[in-house]
User: What shape does this take?
Amino acid sequence: MYLYILLMATILIFFIYKYTTAQTRIHQFEGEVAKTPEQIEHGLMFRKEKLGDKVGMLFLMKLDNHSFWMKNTYIPLDVIFLDRDMRVVGFVKNTTPLSLKSISIDEQSQNILEVNSGTVDKYNIKKRDKIVFTEKNP
Assistant: This one.
């Protein structure tokens, strides 16, 4: 009897794992990485040309409820909030250039990826999707 219950529980866990991980997709981006406080503060400010396709700026942060703004940022962006494993925990789409309005989500994140506005919709990025980011020098 116990063996039967253990077998059924194992099968159930397998199908739950398979279902939840099958929905996760991987998206590849490249670009600059903001690591220092100065780089994080400056971000994409003062740039007037859109980023390339699948190009963004990755901000390496500590786990927290992060908030960004668009001060001195001329290009509209999608802001993607990521956990420590680079999985999407949330995003804010189509930010307003030059706005001082706070951009945040109601969950903690560790890394943030800024990409061209419309990228989240174009690539159908969803929560729990994985981001693979390759650093490229500016």
